Amino acid sequence: MKQLSRLAEGILDRHPAPAIPLHDLCLLIGKETGSHPPPPEILLGALRSDPGRLRLIEGSGDKLASVSPTLWVLGPRASLSDVEGSGRGVDPDAHMPGLVRRVRESVRVIGETIEPGSNLALARWARLLREEERVRRCVLPEGLLQPPPEAGMPPSTTRP
User: Fold this and answer.
1) What is the pLDDT of residues 40-94, one digit of tens each?
2) pTM as predicted
3) Do β-strands 19-21 and 55-58 pair in parallel, antiparallel, or remain unpaired?
4) Looking at the predicted structure, is the pLDDT value of residue 23 above 70?
5) Parallel/antiparallel/unpaired status of strands 71-74 and 55-58
6) Per-residue pLDDT tens digits for 24-49
7) What is the rounded distance in angstroms from the CA atom of residue 72 to the CA atom of residue 21?
8) Exposure string (b/e) for 73-96, b if CB count within 10 Å is 16 or more?
9) Which of 74, 92, 123, 151 has the fewest C-beta atoms lying within 10 Å of its C-beta?
């Protein structure tokens, strides 16, 4: 279980978006491992069993389902993997301008403060995620909209 949560952390650390819906994270894990994606329930269990690694942001009920995913996985702090000594020694956001990195980290930090189960707070934060992606698309040249090639990641999975 910890291995799965570490893999999810690595993917989120390299991904340009500050958070990813749980279902999309499952697909990215499948792509990275070259196997079938884990079922969302399994990944959710792994993330909940290792609460210090990544934060889950979830709404309550189905009222929000038509507007935004109800379960997001918030990426780690910008330098978490280097602080823990992953050995990479490289800033995963080094290819992005400072403005994009600051906006990404700001949206991620705001995500840490969302009251659990608050659909209104989640909807407002999801709106910030869409705005963060718009900033990224406006500021970055076309080639930098994607994660760096060594990250092996597809384009951003946040919804426009």
Assistant:
1) 999 999 999 988 889 999 877 655 444 556 789 998 876 543 333 344 444 555 6
2) 0.73
3) unpaired
4) yes
5) antiparallel
6) 999 999 999 999 999 999 999 999 99
7) 4
8) bbbbebeebeeeeeeeeeebbebb
9) 123
Q: Please report where in the chains the tokens 């060594």 appear, as a residue.
A: 150
User: CA-CA distances (angstroms) from residue 157 to 43, 49, 64, 83, 142?
Assistant: 17, 25, 18, 26, 16
- Residues forming beta bridges with residue 20, ordered by sequence position: 73
Residue 125 in this model has a pLDDT that exceeds 80: yes
Question: What's the confidence (pLDDT) of residue 90?
Answer: 46
C-alpha dihedral sign at 6, 10, 31, 38 = positive
1: its two tokens: 């279980």
